[in-house]
Write a structure and sequence with these properties.
Elements (H helix, E strand, L loop, with lengths): L2 H15 L1 H10 L16 H14 L4 H19 L9 H6 L1 H12 L7 E7 L2 E7 L5 H15 L3 E8 L2 E11 L3
């Protein structure tokens, strides 16, 4: 997992609980990286879950709520850092662009990035978005999609379909609704 994910997580949490508490949490975990991250580094995604779990405990919120807060923070970071991905498109266009436009640009910056894949099918006001990743980060993808819905401020209902036999695949169904 790219280091920018870690650095942004630590930045977000340090704003909430302070840098010394962040250091305390990192020191309490047995991390291969020793809790030292750079934005361009590559790190084990298991560390991400361990850190996120510790911070959710520290903040007395569920893991999923912590993940959603971070997803919102990270999406905001991406929209400010890479505004061209967000300009001139609506929510459905943005989501359909992930594999064909955004991920190729990410690979230019981070050739070693292990990215999930997204395939989509649009039928009027209904978008089916299929997510696949060998790392099983479907909850993280869901959080980023929820942040995208909020960012684009479009009335959309989201339904998540998972396959108990395949934790690496999630289907997101988005339906435009009336405001």
């Amino acid at each position: 997992m790219k280091g920018v994910i870690f650095t942004e997580l630590l930045d977000m949490v340090s704003q909430q609980i302070g840098q010394s508490d962040v250091e305390e949490v990192l020191n309490s975990l047995e991390l291969q990286s020793k809790g030292a991250y750079t934005a361009v580094g590559q790190y084990n995604y298991g560390e991400f879950f361990a850190i996120l779990g510790e911070f959710s405990d520290r903040l007395s919120i569920t893991f999923e709520e912590m993940l959603n807060r971070f997803s919102s923070h990270l999406f905001s970071y991406f929209s400010k850092t890479y505004p061209r991905f967000f300009e001139g498109v609506d929510l459905f266009q943005f989501l359909q662009n992930i594999d064909d436009y955004i991920h190729p640009e990410v690979r230019k910056l981070y050739p070693d990035a292990e990215l999930p894949s997204f395939s989509s099918k649009l039928e009027g006001d209904f978008l089916r978005l299929k997510y696949r990743s060998s790392r099983g980060l479907g909850l993280f993808a869901k959080g980023l999609i929820l942040a995208a819905i909020e960012h684009f401020n479009e009335p959309v209902a989201l339904e998540v379909k998972t396959d108990d036999n395949d934790q690496n695949s999630v289907e997101f169904q988005l339906i435009k609704t009336q405001a």
